[in-house]
Specification:
Elements (H helix, E strand, L loop, with lengths): L12 H15 L11 H8 L3 H13 L3 E4 L2 E4 L2 H11 L4 H32 L2
Antiparallel strand pairs: 1-2
Helix pairs in contact: 1-3, 2-3
Length: 126
C-alpha cells in the first residue's frame, strides 16, 4: 500500500500522488468519509512540496473522489464520484454560503464605517 513517487516516472509528481490516493480510495483502503490526510502529512509521506500535494488534491476533487471543506479533504464513495463531480465539481455549498454570508456582513459593516467617516468630514471640510 505504500506506493512512492518515482523520479523515473515522466508524469508530474502531483499526478503520481493523485494516482496513488485514487487507487487507495478505489480499493477501499481510504473509506468514504475518511480523511485522506493533511497537506503536511501527505507532503511528508510522498516527499513532495505542499503545493504539489494541493495540485494532487485538486485532481482528485475534479474527479469527484474527494470533498474538501474548511476541515480538510475527505474520500467520497467511488460509486457516487462521477455523479458528484458532474453535479457540483467538489463544491461544498453550505461552506460557500457561510463564507458568502460572512463577506456580506463584513461589506455591510465597512459601508457603515465609511458613511460615518464621510459624515464626519463633510461639515468641517472644504
Amino acid at each position: 500500500m505504500s506506493a512512492e513517487i518515482s523520479k523515473d516516472d515522466p508524469r508530474p509528481e502531483s499526478e503520481q500522488a493523485a494516482d496513488i490516493l485514487r487507487q487507495e480510495i478505489l480499493r477501499g483502503d481510504i473509506k468514504p468519509g475518511a480523511h485522506v490526510g493533511s497537506v503536511r502529512d501527505l507532503a511528508t509521506r510522498f516527499k513532495i512540496s505542499g503545493m504539489t500535494v494541493q495540485r494532487a488534491l485538486t485532481i482528485l476533487r475534479e474527479d469527484g473522489l474527494i470533498l474538501t471543506t474548511s476541515r480538510g479533504s475527505y474520500a467520497r464513495d467511488p460509486e457516487q464520484a462521477t455523479e458528484a463531480s458532474e453535479a457540483d465539481a467538489g463544491v461544498d455549498l453550505p461552506e460557500v454560503l457561510r463564507q458568502l454570508e460572512h463577506l456580506t456582513s463584513q461589506v455591510s459593516e465597512l459601508r457603515g464605517r465609511l458613511e460615518a467617516l464621510e459624515n464626519r468630514s463633510v461639515p468641517g471640510g472644504a
